[in-house]
Amino acid sequence: MAVHPASNQSDPFGFGPLTFRPDGTFQISILEDLHFGENAWDQWGPQQDINSVKVINKIFNKESPELVVLNGDLITGENGFLENSTVYIDQIVGPLVARNLTWASTYGNHDYDFNISGDAILKRERNWRNSRTSPMISGPDAGVSNYYLPVYDYGCLSEYACSPQLILWFFDSRGGFKYQQGNSTNRVGQPNWVDTSVVDWFTKASTSLTKRYRKMIPSLGFVHIPPYASYALQDAGVDPNKEPGVNDDLPLAPQAQGWCPDGRNDGTCTYGTQDTKFMQAISHTEGFIALFSGHDHGDTWCYRWDRLLPGMDVTPANNVTLCFGQHTGYGGYGNWERGSRQVMVSKDGLAKFEADTWIRLESGNTVGRVSLNSTYGQDLYPKTNNSMTHCPTCEY
User: Fold this and answer.
1) Which InterPro entries does the record match to this protein (predicted)?
2) Please, which residues bridge with residue 223 across strands?
3) What does CATH list as the number for 18-372?
4) Contacts of 150 (CB under 8 A, 6+ apart)
5) Is 154 exposed, middle or buried (0-12, 13-18, 19+ CB in 10 A)?
6) What is the pLDDT of residue 5?
7) Phi/psi class of residue 176: alpha, beta or left (left: φ > 0; alpha: ψ in -120 to 50)?
8) Which of the residues in the chain have pLDDT under 50?
9) What does the domain layout of the chain look like in residue ranges?
10) pTM for the whole thing?
11) Rounded CA gap, 257 and 181, in Å?
């Protein structure tokens, strides 16, 4: 395992450090499950990519974030060819480059397959100066998209002279299949959880940041596949007025699904518990406000994890909120209306470990606007309307 230095990792191409707006706010837009590159050999597949680009443009006609997060499953890797599996990155980021928006990625299970890898996607991303995807740890089991980005006060020109006000953590939940191992009809499965080497890196890096800046810095996290705690919370019951959002993927698919505790994935086990160390880490890191996931296209709620849950042995010391995004791309399963989760933090809110979030839909409407504060889970909100997309070119 190799750990890479943090200096300049957040800005490899000189785009400037991430900073708050003059009014003390910082907005993030999450694009989830884009699934570009499906069925590239027929008319249907490329049409879905065209539709997905339209969604991205519609979102950013309404929202103006400081950072865009591409939170996994950028590409449907099982449909990709070795020679050109990553060219879809150019289509994905085209609307962002046109608006001079900067982005950061995590990679998901469909981004890893026989003809595609996180390394190859990262290489393609680095053709664009707007990308901040900057791995800080490498190793055979780490995955690729593990790193953090600091966010500074407005007016900060150099990360060497400023103290971060917010830390954004990015985790690679891996999954899918190993690149060029086995053969195209007998692929080798890859573990679908955040590896223990990454958890160790996160714990050490978080402690180091606290020591370096002599303060606890509030943080948010992003990972494609949700942890098992999301599954347990859903099983406990999602209240449509207390945790508004679509709850159609029931049960959801967590990290370590389909694996055995001994590491086998031969179809004999339903859940292997390998994400326990990751859940322990995020729920015991002071100031870790929320973790944002995708993967389950039919789930869009946020739930405050504040207690020991049935079937688990992790009791959270820091009450982290677990959130789903909104299925953004026309690729991938489901006909829920496409959209993008927005996250807004303010310096005043961060002092109380609070964040606001809502979902911007392709129609232009917003749903699920909530405040992730100390009373989230008790406050009542309007129920989210479960709107669907009418798409004559789609096959559901």
Assistant:
1) Calcineurin-like_PHP (IPR004843), Metallo-depent_PP-like (IPR029052)
2) 171
3) 3.60.21.10
4) 10, 17, 18, 159, 164, 166, 167, 168, 217
5) middle
6) 45
7) left
8) 5-10, 12-13, 396
9) 18-372
10) 0.96
11) 21
Distance from C-alpha of 282 to C-alpha of 269, rounded to nearest angstrom:
25
Distance CA 245, CA 385 (A): 8
3-state secondary structure of 279: helix
Question: Alpha-carbon distance 173 to 181, whole Å?
Answer: 19
CA-CA-CA-CA torsion sign (74, 76, 78, 83)? negative
Tokens of 195: 């590896």
Q: What is the largest CA-CA distance in the chain?
A: 57
Q: Which two tokens stand for residue 94?
A: 């085209």
Please name which of 171, 176, 223, 177 lies closest in space to residue 202, comparing C-alpha atoms: 171
- What are 337-388's pLDDT values in tens digits? 999 999 999 999 999 999 999 999 999 999 999 999 999 999 999 999 999 9
Contacts of 89 (CB under 8 A, 6+ apart): 74, 75, 121, 124, 125, 127
> Which residue, chain included where needed, has tokens 């957040």?
10
Q: What does the pLDDT look like over 28-46, one tens digit per residue?
A: 999 999 999 999 999 889 9
Average pLDDT of the chain to the nearest whole number: 94
Residues 6+ apart with CB under 8 A from 50: none
